[in-house]
Amino acid sequence: MIALAIVAVVTAYAMPAYRAYAARGYRMDAMLTLYRAAHFIETARPARTAHGAADTLPAGLDRVPPQGPAVYRLHLQPADAGNGGYAIEAVPSAGGLMAGDRCGTFVLEATGRRANRVSGVSALEIEDCWRAR
């Protein structure tokens, strides 16, 4: 009975710490994939525009992680007045492990601006999210 109580106490402390650790890992994966996607767009854009092809992200750069259940989905946004030519968003998958995460959607613009969008808050800068905390 004492052993069961000890296991319950350890589990009560370990599970939230593990979930926070896993969330940081998924956020870091999303950030790295955003930078990889930006690199792809920057290097592929001259060849693609010469052939009249639209900018799209290839398989493997359109989700995090590349295999298994998607935690984030990446979307390429078109140019507007402020993003420098494009913006890439990593949106938490609905019903996924990061749905409802405090960092919300990660956004990387062509200008290098990094931001997060959280439901109900417009263009909120959350630097701790980009520091993988």
Strand content: 15-25%
**How many individual helices?**
2
Taken together, the total number of domains comes to 1
For the report, how would you describe the main beta sheet?
A: 5 strands, antiparallel
Distance between the termini: 37 Å
Encode the helix/strand succession as letters.
Answer: HEEEEEH
CATH class: Alpha Beta
What Rg do the Cα atoms give?
18 Å
- In the CATH scheme, what's the topology name? Glycoprotein, Type 4 Pilin
Structural class: alpha+beta
* CATH-scheme architecture: 2-Layer Sandwich
- Percent of residues in helical segments? 25-40%
Count every beta strand, where a strand is a DSSP E run of 2 or more residues: 5
Indicate the mean pLDDT: 85
- Determine the oligomeric state from the structure: single chain
Shape: elongated
Strand order of the largest sheet: 1-2-3-4-5
**Sequence stretches where pLDDT stays below 50 over 5 or more residues:** none
Pfam family, one: ComP_DUS
Organism: Trinickia caryophylli
Protein name: Type IV pilus assembly protein PilE
InterPro entries: PilE-like, Pilin-like
